[in-house]
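Example record used in the benchmark description.
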Amino acid sequence: MEKKDKEKKVIVTSVFKNSVKENLEFLSENIPDYAERFIDELAKKLRDIARNPQHYPAEPKLNSKLQIYRYATFMKFWKILFKSQKNQIVILKLIHIRQNPKRIKYLHRKKYD
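Model output (structure tokens):
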């Protein structure tokens, strides 16, 4: 009989929700077909992160000894930043890869709801 790993609790921060909302509003107004695909691909990637967070690489801009900060890219230009801890996964932020990298560095010092 296979031993099934305990699933981690997934917490989605308000920062992530707001970044999705802002980007989706822009895409819906300017590129409606892309916006629909964006939502589908984002949902798929979030499910993949929940199933296997260790599959994704450590985020180099957020150094930590335990490499808890990770990222997943989708649709070539989007990055989901998340923190993988022992019992939970915290989805931190959605960014476009061309955003200023300094906007990433503050995430490890921030408290999330």
